[in-house]
Specification:
Layout: H1 22-35, H2 40-45, H3 49-64, H4 71-84, H5 88-102, H6 105-114, H7 122-136, H8 143-151, H9 156-179
Helix pairs in contact: 3-9, 4-5, 4-6, 4-7, 4-9, 5-6, 7-8, 7-9
């Protein structure tokens, strides 16, 4: 079955690149340079820059900014949360990011299907358990959950970051589902061969 050609089912008008503000044009140019395309989530939000710019800023701060969490750990949270929510867009896009950063295609697939079956460090498993509980049963989070994270070396600031990343992707998953957001087809083929095995 071929993928849908639309970005979202709402088909809100996507501006031409030259119609975007210089700030957003520059951001999109960086996407083209670094990954070869502009992620559809950004294109989807671009119908209204007042919605796009805060989304870009929060994503950059949470996923690329300074944190005790590694970039891989933040992507793992994105995938674990998106797996619970069955978010096709984020599983495809951030599963690709896990493959890229870890250089382990199998890890990317395990994270998408069931992170509990992956060979993870104990701290990573506790981190993901917390993010998933926050997704499934936020009302059941208690101090004992935070204390378990501290016992595995997470500071209070790191716990904040785990919660913030999980919360951001719960929001993103729900928006993607609300408008039937489709991932770029390029994601499907990226970073699937272990290093050194490319033809």
């Amino acid at each position: 079955m071929s993928q849908p050609s639309y970005i979202t089912a709402l088909e809100l008008k996507e501006p031409r690149r030259e119609e975007l503000s210089p700030e957003v044009q520059k951001y999109f140019a960086v996407c083209d340079e670094k990954i070869g395309f502009v992620p559809n989530v950004l294109r989807a939000y671009s119908f209204d820059e007042e919605k796009l710019k805060p989304f870009m800023a929060m994503y950059d701060e949470l996923m690329l900014g300074e944190s005790e969490l590694s970039k891989l750990e933040r992507e793992m949270i994105a995938v674990a949360v998106s797996s619970v929510n069955h978010c096709f867009y984020c599983l495809v896009a951030h599963g690709s990011a896990v493959r890229r950063i870890s250089k382990d295609p199998a890890l990317g697939e395990l994270m998408v299907m069931n992170y509990r079956t992956a060979e993870l460090e104990p701290r990573q498993r506790v981190m993901l358990d917390f993010a998933v509980k926050l997704t499934e049963k936020p009302h059941e989070i208690v101090e004992a959950d935070r204390e378990l994270l501290r016992e595995h070396g997470f500071s209070n600031k790191a716990i904040w970051d785990i919660g913030a990343v999980a919360a951001f992707f719960n929001m993103s998953n729900r928006m993607a589902s609300a408008v039937d957001m489709q991932p770029n087809k390029e994601y499907h083929a990226l970073f699937r061969e272990p290093p050194g095995t490319e033809a």
